[in-house]
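pipeline/complex-builder :: batch 7 item 3
reading input block
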Amino acid sequence: MSKITLKVNGGTHTVDVDPTTPLLYILRNDLNLQGPHFGCGLGQCGACTVILNGAAVRSCILPVSAVRGEITTLEGLSRNGQLHPLQQAWIDEQAPQCGFCQNGQIMTAKVMLDKNPHPTDAQIRDTMNNTLCRCMSYNRVQAAIKRAAKTVAALDNAAQEKEVVA
Amino acid sequence: MIPQNVEDILLTHRRGFLTTAGLLFIGFAAPASPAADAPGPYPLVDPTRLDSWIVIHQNNTATFYVGKTDPGQGTGTGFRQLMSDELDIAFDNTTCIMGSTDITVDQIGSGGSSAMERDSLPMRRAAAEARRALLEMASARFAVPLDQLAVSEGVVTVKTDPSRHVTYGDLIGGGKFNITLSGNNALNVNGKAKIKTIPELKYAGKPTRRDDIPGKVDATTKYSVDVKLPGMVHARNVKPPYACATLTGIDESSVKSLPGFIKVMSKGNYVAVVCEREEQAVRAARQLKTTWQKPATAPFPSSDDLFNYLRTAKPVAVSTAGPEAGALVVGDPARAFQNAAKVIEAEYEIPFQGHTAFGPAHAIADPSNGQMTIYSNDMKTYGMRRGVATFLGLPHDRVRVVYMPGSQGFGRTAAEDAACEAAWLAHELGRPVRMQWMRDEETAWDSKSPAFLVKMRAALDNEGNLNGYSYEARSCDYNHLGYNEPDTTLIAQLMGQRREKPAAGSAATPSDMYAIPNRGMRGDVVALPAIWETPLRTGNLRDPNGPQAAFASESFIDEVAAAIQADPLDFRLKLLEAGTGDDSGFRRARSLAVLKAAAQKYGWDSRPSGKPRGSGKILTGRGIAYTFRGQSMVAQIVEVEVNRETGHVWAKRMVCAHDCGFVVNPQSLLTSLECGMLHGLSRSLHEEVRFNTERVTSVDWISHPTLRHADVPASVEIVIVNGDPNPGRPDLPLYGAGEACLKPTMAAVANAIHDATGVRLRRVPFRPERVLAALRAAGV
């Protein structure tokens, strides 16, 4: 066992655990976060995805001792009670069925849009291809990503105009 | 000890929804009935008490209690629409609690696409009766006759003096109706009030956003995997490494010194480890040394030899019933084949396909208070309650199942396994236990849909008419799993508890309305050499036999059309139009309507299938298939691109025409159909259980692949059809809508591949290597 300090969603937490423990179990069982899910434990499906230093990582295969930096989970996407544009787009497109995979869909899409605010259809399919959904909500998820990209672009434009005015 | 109020768990996300939706009130008062946090015992809820179904709160909100479960298709929202309409209360002021055995009436749970078609009726009757009772209360309060009262959104008003009004909450809020319904079960209960006609419904029929979605995107939904109880420990199974293996030894010293280790628990061939923390249990299960003895003979053929086995094995059961024992016969098919000018034959093969739920099996069992509470996403919680109680030898009323959302299982959670495991471990240990399967365990050992081998024959007369038709199916479905049965659930099998007479299984015949003068159909069930303690266990996977039967029958109809150079749509329409018999539920008329609607949406041009191949790398084609489930009609057209160099198939466009009668929520129907069609596509292109003669070898998302983002069609188009040809009725009744839409997909894809390449694929799935081999063999 060893003491490990994690920065998650703006807070700091110290846990005393076996350092080889996959990050997922710490997030779920010690920090009581329920966004990331266990789907495969093999890094194949994406249910456990969190954002670590701006990258989408699979917390089910990441030893907690290897974590350096700031973790964001699905819980950390909304700000001041406002849903992230991706979350709102997910509602507007009525994307989830059971919802169990949607953490992976949303978090993977978030990292994609952060890096590439205007992805093409092909880029969406390519980037999202290893994030699985057994309900087969893919069609709606892709539509939601496109919708969110438009919202983010509109928000950015509005912010830029504000800056110009200021 | 019930550490967390059940109602809290169940309502958490709904509260979140109402808050974020900006409504004026936050949350609901604790329901007056039924008691949610009672320490037990937990008898079933009496369906004849109106108070079992509906609670009105003082703030003029209502909670509906229904014995159904919603795996994510929006049935919960649909029930609220229908019950709000019948009660005449604002939809936004209602919530719906589902499927927890001690607080909702036993409506079985979900399955068979029965939510709207069957089980919404008693809910509507209860809500209508509550409305009637409330109006009587208002009539007494205002001392005016009933016909002088109007009601809207939970407010009763005196028609002649609108200043006199009262809310439902003021009339009964927090109190009980104390009304006994007629009838004696959750299907036939009824009140004095009549339910509304379809044109009178206001919320039902309107596209409505699902109430479960916000919590699923902001991580406030509590899934059953999220339950944590004080003192809870974690368990993992150690599965036999081979089917039918006998446990010969456990070396507990191999894990004893691991941190957090509590116990190895074993009985018969069942082995599990229990640890304080989850990752400790995962590690201990991997590290535990066990020895096993292989069975004397192979439990099954390898997946490569499966269809040879099915072809030659002696059937153990006859599935179909009809005028002749075991067969459905119209006319004289034997004579039609004797006199045929031409006979066409083909054989179709559909492998075992896994449920492969996205989240593995899991359950949390709490033995506090001498009772047993199971937290689960089981779709049939009432069956689970019976199963767990019988398995443990507990009186049924000492067991309850708290239903919570979970990963969709398409029938996997009907034949659930983790609950009896968690319950046994918790019962033995005296502590709450959380059991969860690992991915390889789930994919290898979950329930499978039965493999099918179907032989089809057609007799054509001199004019090329389809005069005789024969369908002979062999389904590998013996010992089909029921709903959490205490003598078929896996832990029971491994402990040696087996039922004497295994379930016969089924080998269904196709569902179509074609008028063929001489027709014979037969389904036989074949057993594998081993039927117990094997991972090749069959259970209901979304319309359990439908996709298999439709793959054979709708591929074959295409083959016959191609043989006589007929357009496959025209050929089907002609076979339907030739029908003259009774058209119960307008099935024939509605079959024609969905086929025509799909063709119109697609822009179908009439020509025989197997169009001239181009010289390019990509070959394109379109295929059509139609079938029905119950009274729900579906026609699908799939357009494919086939890469002749790699064998890769992309379904570029999918069109579906769907008629399930009256649609309660068109929005959730559309998304459910999209997802169902893509599930059908996944089963067409990817899914197959692979095994050698000892064990299943497809154990993860690489070896048992599923559809991915890149596979998604460029366009998925759905036409909702109301093919009701009876002008005297405003609309058809509500029919099931969950499963029909994936039934024709495999055939539509195969027909499209044939159109594109001229090559007929008769073996599912159409993975690149199989397609490429077929193209090469045909010289394409």
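note: The domain at 85-161 of chain A is CATH 1.10.150.120 (DNA polymerase; domain 1).
queue -> next item
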